[in-house]
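Hi all, posting the design record for the shared folder.

TITLE: backbone redesign
STEP: 1 of 1
STRUCTURE INPUT:
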């Protein structure tokens, strides 16, 4: 789970920095917005559930990975040229990872002795998983003066986050590894293939729909 968390942190940092790079910001702006995207959702989660110290203060590897992701985007921009949207792909990986991490952490921290039959544990854990997944993107978009994409009418972000958190919560009581695999796959399927901005419409059918 630790390495999965770092992978999600890197993916979100790259996605956030990539969006900032598109606004022609300087290196500080690119790295800063990448870091906000990477740690913002987890910060929301930890503050709400009273988990201290904040995860990136307890383990500085998260901040280092977030900064690394922003610097990769800033100094090696040719990796992120258009084809299928690199922003969407990395952002989807981050979302799929963080809904798992957020749901797991919230449940272990708040309800260590509860079972799947607890409605309160289910609602809170799934919601915290969703917040972990989209919270950083909401902060990033707000700082950049945009309406958060997660809240837009044509966005599948909230539904993908809910589906991933829901499936992980239910399956983790049966088999933890299967829960991770299924949750990740469900979230990625909705974000990368099913939506109107996904790979099916953008690549396989080659419809001229602008990417996120």
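Okay, here is what came back for every position:
SEQUENCE:
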């Amino acid at each position: 789970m630790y390495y999965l968390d770092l992978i999600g942190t890197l993916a979100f940092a790259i996605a956030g920095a990539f969006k900032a790079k598109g606004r022609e910001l300087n290196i500080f702006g690119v790295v800063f917005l990448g870091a906000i995207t990477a740690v913002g959702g987890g910060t929301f989660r930890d503050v709400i559930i009273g988990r201290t110290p904040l995860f990136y203060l307890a383990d500085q590897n998260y901040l280092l990975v977030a900064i690394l992701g922003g610097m990769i985007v800033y100094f090696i921009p040719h990796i992120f040229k258009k084809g299928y949207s690199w922003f969407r792909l990395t952002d989807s990986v981050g979302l799929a990872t963080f809904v798992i991490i957020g749901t797991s952490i919230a449940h272990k921290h708040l309800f260590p002795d509860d079972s799947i039959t607890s409605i309160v544990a289910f609602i809170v854990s799934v919601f915290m998983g969703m917040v972990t997944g989209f919270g950083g993107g909401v902060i990033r978009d707000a700082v950049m003066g945009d309406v958060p994409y997660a809240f837009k009418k044509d966005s599948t972000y909230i539904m993908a986050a809910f589906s991933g958190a829901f499936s992980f919560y239910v399956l983790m009581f049966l088999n933890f590894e299967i829960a991770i695999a299924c949750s990740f796959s469900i979230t990625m399927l909705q974000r990368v293939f099913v939506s109107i901005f996904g790979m099916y419409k953008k690549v396989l059918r080659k419809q001229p729909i602008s990417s996120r």
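COMMENT: Confidence is low (pLDDT under 50) at residues 208-212.
Let me know if anyone wants the other runs.
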